[in-house]
Specification:
Layout: H1 2-10, E1 14-16, E2 28-30, H2 32-51, E3 56-58, H3 67-72, H4 75-78, E4 80-85, E5 92-94, E6 98-106, E7 121-129, H5 134-148, E8 154-155, E9 161-162, E10 189-192, E11 195-198, E12 208-211, H6 216-221, H7 223-228, E13 236-245, E14 260-270, H8 276-293, E15 301-305, E16 317-325, E17 328-339, H9 341-350, E18 356-358, E19 363-365, E20 368-375, H10 376-387, E21 388-394, E22 400-406, E23 417-421, H11 427-440, E24 446-448, H12 454-463, E25 468-472, E26 487-492, E27 498-502, H13 503-514
Parallel strand pairs: 3-13, 23-24, 23-25
Antiparallel strand pairs: 1-2, 4-5, 4-10, 6-7, 6-8, 6-9, 11-12, 13-14, 14-20, 15-16, 16-17, 17-20, 18-19, 21-22, 25-26, 26-27
The protein binds glycyl-adenosine-5'-phosphate.
Residues 214, 216, 246, 248, 257-258, 261, 263, 265, 331-334, 371, 373-375, 377-378 line the site of glycyl-adenosine-5'-phosphate.
Length: 515
C-alpha cells in the first residue's frame, strides 16, 4: 500500500487535499493522471450502464435536496455510526471497528478448562483496530500482557468482540488503541454522519440542509418526473454519478473511506410481482463482469451476503462484491434489494403518489428496486492495487533492471499512447513525431515526450500504465528504404514486444484496443 500511495503522489495521480496547509483528513485531490483515470472509470460505467442499454436512463440531481428527503429516507433518524472517543488522545474510533478481548488464564490444575469456565482468571484486556490481523494482534498482545504480569498458567482462547458488545463495567478496563492504557475510552454514542450546511440568509434550524450522503435519493425523489416524461416502462433503471459526503468517524486506508467521495448508483425498478431474486443475481453478475472489464483481477473479487439478521429494515437481501485490498478484503460494490421502501416513504412524506400504472395489466403499484451502488474512488483504488506490478526489463545495453508497471486495462489507462522522437535534436524526427501526435490527439489521450534515452522514456510510461509507446526513428523518415517509410515502432507495455506499424493504421489499431 505504501508503494502505491507513494507512486500516486510522485506521478500525479492523487494528493492530500490542501496539503500546503497540513492537509484535511478524509479529503483527496486527483492530479492530472488521477483526473484522467477517474474520468475513464466514469465514462466506461456511463457508456455500459446507460448509453449501451435501452432500459436505463441517466440523471444528475442536485447535491443539496429538500431536508424532508432525508427524513423520508431514514437518514436523519438512522444514518448513525456508533462512535467511541479517547479522552486523552482526543482520537475517535468507530465502535464496530474497535475490537477487544478479555485475557484469561486457565489455572494450571485444570488445563482442560476454557475461557467460559468460572475458574479462569481475567488478568486484563487487549485491544486492536479492525484489520486482516485483528485476531493475531489480540493474541500477541495477550501473550505480552501475561509475560509482563509474570502470570503462570495457560492462556484461554482469545475471543474478539467489537466495542459495541462491551459491558458497561468493562469500558474503563479496556485500553485505548491510541495510548495503550485503560480508562480513557467513552461508551459508544450514536453519531449522525450527514454533513450539515445552512441555505439562505438565516442560520437557524429552519435553514439546515444536508450535503447528500448518497446519490440514490435523487433517483427516488425524481421517479415520478421521469416516469411522466414517458420514455420508460418497468423494468427500467435510473443511473447517476455524483459526489456524496459522509462525516466518517475514521476516514482511512488512503481513498478507501473518505468524507467526500463519488458514487455511481443505479436504481432498477421492477414489478412488485416480479422475481426480485432473479434481478438481484442478474445485477451482481453484471457488476462483477464490469469490474473485470476495467481490469480488476477476477481472483481478487469475492461475494459477501449480508446475514438476514444484519440487513437494514427495508432490505430483502444485500450482496457486496468484495476486493482483496492490501489492507484486507473489503466492500467494493453493494447490490441491495430495497423492496418498495424508498418510494413508499417518499409517497408518505411528500403526499405525492409514487404508484406506477401498468398499461398492459391496467394495474397500479409501487415498484420494487434493485440497487447496485459503488464508489468511483474505491474502484480506482482497486484498479491501482490490481494493476501494480514489479518485474524486470532490459535497459539500453540489454542489462536487466527492475521496473514498476501499472498494468491498466487499455480502456481505463489515463494515457493510451506515448509518442517519442528517437532523438530530440533532429528536427525531422521531432516534426514527424508531432505530426503523429496531432493525428491521434483528437481521438485519444496521448503524450509527447522527447526527454532522455528511449529506455528511460519507456520506464516512465510503464510506471503510469501507458499501454503503447510509439517511436519515430530514421526508418519512419524513409532513410532505410521505402518499405519502412511512414512506419513507427509500436511497443507493448506488458509483453515489451516491438513491431512496425504503418502510421495510417495506427488510429484504427489503437481505437480497437482502447474502446
Ligand atoms: N445508496 C446505497 C449506498 O449508498 P453504501 O454501501 O453506503 O450504500 C455504496 O455505499 C458504495 O459507495 C460503497 O459500496 C462504496 O463503494 C462507496 N462508499 C460508501 N462510503 C464511502 C466512503 N466513505 N468513501 C468512499 N467510498 C464510499
Amino acid at each position: 500500500m505504501e508503494k502505491i500511495v507513494s507512486l500516486c503522489k510522485r506521478r500525479g495521480f492523487i494528493f492530500q487535499s490542501s496539503e500546503i496547509y497540513g492537509g484535511i483528513n478524509g479529503f483527496w485531490d486527483y492530479g492530472p493522471l488521477g483526473a484522467e483515470l477517474r474520468k475513464n472509470i466514469r465514462d466506461c460505467w456511463w457508456n455500459d450502464m446507460v448509453r449501451r442499454r435501452d432500459d436505463i436512463v441517466g440523471l444528475e440531481s442536485s447535491i443539496i435536496m429538500h431536508p424532508k428527503v432525508w427524513e423520508a429516507s431514514g437518514h436523519v433518524a438512522g444514518f448513525n455510526d456508533p462512535m467511541v472517543d479517547c479522552k486523552v488522545s482526543k482520537q475517535r474510533f468507530r465502535a464496530d471497528q474497535l475490537f477487544f478481548a478479555r485475557v484469561e488464564i486457565i489455572p494450571e490444575a485444570s488445563a482442560e478448562t476454557t475461557h467460559s469456565d468460572p475458574s479462569t482468571q481475567t488478568i486484563g484486556y487487549v485491544v486492536a483496530l479492525e484489520s486482516d490481523r485483528t485476531d493475531e494482534e489480540l493474541r500477541e498482545k495477550a501473550i505480552e500482557l501475561k509475560r509482563k504480569k509474570s502470570i503462570r498458567g495457560q492462556l484461554a482462547p482469545i475471543v474478539a468482540l467489537d466495542f459495541t458488545q462491551a459491558k458497561p463495567e468493562e469500558i474503563t478496563l479496556i485500553p485505548s488503541p491510541a495510548t495503550g492504557e485503560p480508562g480513557s475510552l467513552t461508551a459508544p454514542r450514536a453519531f449522525n454522519m450527514m454533513l450539515q450546511t445552512h441555505v439562505g440568509a438565516l442560520r437557524d434550524e429552519s435553514a439546515i440542509a444536508y450535503l447528500r450522503p448518497e446519490t440514490a435519493q435523487g433517483m427516488f425523489a425524481d421517479f415520478k418526473a421521469i416516469v411522466d416524461t414517458g420514455r420508460v416502462k418497468v423494468p427500467f433503471g435510473i443511473a447517476q454519478i455524483g459526489k456524496s459526503f459522509r462525516n466518517e468517524i475514521t476516514p482511512r486506508n488512503f481513498i478507501f473511506r473518505s468524507r467526500e467521495f463519488e458514487q455511481m448508483e443505479m436504481e432498477y425498478f421492477i414489478s412488485d410481482q416480479d422475481d426480485w431474486m432473479k434481478w438481484h443475481r442478474y445485477w451482481i453478475d453484471w457488476c462483477r463482469d464490469w469490474l473485470i472489464s476495467v481490469g480488476i483481477p477476477a481472483a481478487q473479487i469475492s461475494e459477501y451476503n449480508h446475514p438476514k439478521e444484519k440487513l437494514s429494515h427495508y432490505s430483502k437481501g444485500t450482496t457486496d462484491l468484495m476486493f482483496q485490498y492490501p489492507f484486507g478484503t473489503q466492500e467494493l460494490w453493494g447490490i441491495a434489494a430495497r423492496g418498495n421502501y424508498d418510494l413508499s416513504q417518499h409517497s408518505r412524506f411528500s403526499g405525492t403518489s409514487m404508484e406506477y400504472f401498468d398499461e398492459a395489466s391496467k394495474r397500479k403499484y409501487i415498484p420494487h428496486v434493485i440497487e447496485p451502488a459503488v464508489g468511483v474512488d474505491r474502484i480506482l483504488l482497486a484498479i491501482l492495487c490490481g494493476a501494480y506490478t514489479e518485474d524486470e526489463a532490459p535497459d539500453e545495453k540489454g542489462k536487466m533492471e527492475s521496473r514498476v508497471v501499472l498494468r491498466f486495462a487499455p480502456r481505463i489507462a489515463p494515457i493510451k499512447a506515448a509518442i517519442f522522437p528517437l532523438l530530440k535534436n533532429k528536427p525531422e524526427l521531432v516534426a514527424k513525431a508531432k505530426a503523429v501526435r496531432d493525428l491521434l490527439r483528437p481521438h485519444l489521450t496521448v503524450f509527447y515526450d522527447e526527454a532522455g534515452a528511449i529506455g528511460r522514456r519507456y520506464r516512465r510510461q510503464d510506471e503510469i500504465g501507458t499501454p503503447f509507446c510509439l517511436t519515430i526513428d530514421f526508418e519512419t523518415l524513409g532513410e532505410k528504404g521505402d518499405d519502412l517509410k511512414d512506419t513507427v515502432t509500436l511497443r507493448d507495455r506488458d509483453s515489451m514486444k516491438q513491431e512496425r506499424v504503418k502510421v495510417s493504421e495506427l488510429l484504427p489499431f489503437l481505437l480497437s484496443k482502447v474502446c
